[in-house]
Amino acid sequence: MKVVDEAGAGKPASNQQETPAFRPRKRASKRTWRFLPLVLLTVVIAALAVPMGLGVAPGFFGPGFLGAVSSPTPQVPAWQQIPNKLSRTQVVSPLDPSAPVPLPADVTRQLNALLTPDGGGDFTGVVEDALTGLSLYDRDGAKNRVPASNMKLLTAVAALRAIGPETRFSTRVLTGSSASTIILSAGGDVLLGAGPSQPSEVLGHAGAETLAVDAAKALQERGVKGPVTVQLDDGLFSGPALNPAWSLDDVAAGETAPIFPLALNSARTSPGATTGTRPQDAALTAAEAFAGKLQAAGAAAGFTVAPGVERAKPPAGQQDVLANVESATVREQVDLMLETSDNYLAEIFGRMAALSMGQAGSNDGATAAVSAQLAELGIATDSMHLADVSGLALGNQVSARQFADVVRAITSGPDTRLRAALAGFPVAGLTGTLGDRYGDASTSQGAGLVRAKTGTLNTVIALSGYVVDANGRLLVFSFIGNGLTPGAAGNKVALDRSATALASCGCTGG
């Protein structure tokens, strides 16, 4: 056996004990001095590393790690500490009725510089103090104008007053003339979804699939084996389904469609569709979708469904209700109509308001119902002419003053049912038909502040709504342009700048 020393020389193992101790140390001492700086550096690093490691270790292993160095509890900033009491609830304060009212002369000076057409045509406009009704701006405010979709504000008021904000429309399945015949009864819900009911949604709140499943259970309990015949009763409305005052080009483009008291997706091909052609028989389309869902549900319930859906009047006498689904509330539907400017839904509201007042569910009944509700509200209607209730017809004639009065009735009038429409006004730069506006430097100060219903036809543009000015005063306004140059971009900008000026107005002469 050999032992190898640092120099690599091999010696017998027995000789290791015989070698005097001082002799190998003497040889090693020369090498030790040579590496002493390196040894000292290593010792210093180790001396520093040990406490540092012990200090870092708790971060990896937790404070209970063996060898962790305890240290005083660090001072936690107050905003990071658990509160020992609840903070006071923060709420939006009501408007101060003593806030200064803008001076009409200052408002007029600002708006006259901004409310100018891009090319041909002209603008009329009215601004009122919402609390007092004081006129702050009036440019031909009593002049009749084609208002485009601002018409929907009038329809919203009529629907909330005549039908009621919390009312829901029912779509029912009734027993027919025989045990194997059922009747799908339309009740005014045109926001029916094709799938299961979605209680948290407005569009699709009631679902054709849910209605079919419930109907299938009822038929199974009655021992029906089929084939089950599905009939459609959509006789709730009367008169022409297509308003002759509408442009056929608008109908072909999908701006509206023949009006029926039952439809899927507001007479659109899918829930997400907002443009494109529409079903021309929305009620039959919805009934066929229901029959398809019933066929699927019937397979599990032990019966079949006869192909096709036929229209039929309900038999005389009382029918049993086999199944029923209900729409979102009128309040929620009105907000959707205003935010998205849904023409089809507006026409439904007009007819349903007429029916609620004991009138015919027709276009004439709808326009008469809207006029009557406005008159009852105290708004002058003698000069007003309504050709439809959605705003597509060029025959509509309404003044800016009448629209400002309607907005004032919604925001601060005595009929509190109308407050339900407030959430439906599009918000500048954020929601609905104003979502893509108020983005440039000249209008951005109005973003999030201006809330208004838009209106656009080929030569028409309108904006009616409300805003709180820089001094905390609630103002209502209506601006309408007619005879405008088609496609001129400056006209929308003129309206948006005018509304923005009201939002940032400190027009008190100070």
From TrEMBL:
Residues 1-26 are annotated as: Disordered. The keyword Ubl conjugation does not apply. GO terms for molecular function: serine-type D-Ala-D-Ala carboxypeptidase activity. Its EC number is 3.4.16.4. InterPro entries: Beta-lactam/transpept-like, Peptidase_S13. Keywords: Carboxypeptidase, Hydrolase, Membrane, Protease, Transmembrane, Transmembrane helix. It comes from the Bacteria. The chain crosses the membrane at residues 35-61. Belongs to the peptidase S13 family. This is D-alanyl-D-alanine carboxypeptidase/D-alanyl-D-alanine-endopeptidase.
